[in-house]
Amino acid sequence: MDLFLRTVAVYIFLLIILRLAGKRTLSEMSTFDFILVLIISEATQNALVDDDRSLTNGLAVILTLVALDRLAAVVKRRSQRVEQILEGTPLMLVDHGRVLEERMKKSNVTLEDILQSARLHQGIARLDQIKYAVLEASGGISIIPVDENAELDQRIEAAVTRALARHNETVASPR
């Protein structure tokens, strides 16, 4: 029972520490994946190199962690709030081309991180080509480019509206 309680305590401790460390710490790995990899690798090492009791303990630790992971998955499926607490939520970093510096600072993301993600995933080189940048719960940065056709359509629509307004003014004004 002591082994089970120690395993649960280490799991919860690592979960809290890694959530406080921030999303970028884990990059594309979920918090649960990272914790499982850490502890299972250590338990496996202990089971492989120590005495027979260590083998039993290592297997018990691994089994406990997998069971905790499955339990957490079930609880997350049933409660969106629990999922948000355990996994985090996406965070907007660029909104309509405007850099949200406080959010970037809070999440330890630099402008270079955003531009690197834009280059890698969208082939975008400049900030003015980014409509939205979102720090995902997994730690990755999603980039939504500016739709150049939509921008062109808006400019054409604005020009047509101005031309119609001028036309209406000339028609309405007495000579």
Characteristics:
CRO Repressor, about 70% helix, about 10% strand, membrane, alpha+beta, about 180 residues, 4 strands, four-stranded antiparallel sheet
Can you walk through the features of this model?
Its main location: membrane. This is DUF421 domain-containing protein. Residues 78-148 form the YetF C-terminal domain. The model has no long low-confidence stretch (mean pLDDT 80). The chain starts with a helix and ends with a helix. Strands 2-1-3-4 form a four-stranded antiparallel β-sheet. The chain is built from eight helices and four strands. Helix 3 runs antiparallel to helix 4. It has two domains: 2-87; 91-148, bsu07140 like domains (CRO Repressor, 2-Layer Sandwich), CATH 3.30.240. A hairpin with a 5-residue loop joins strand 3 (130-135) and strand 4. With 175 residues, the chain is of the alpha+beta class. Helices cover 69% and strands 10% of the residues. The chain is elongated.
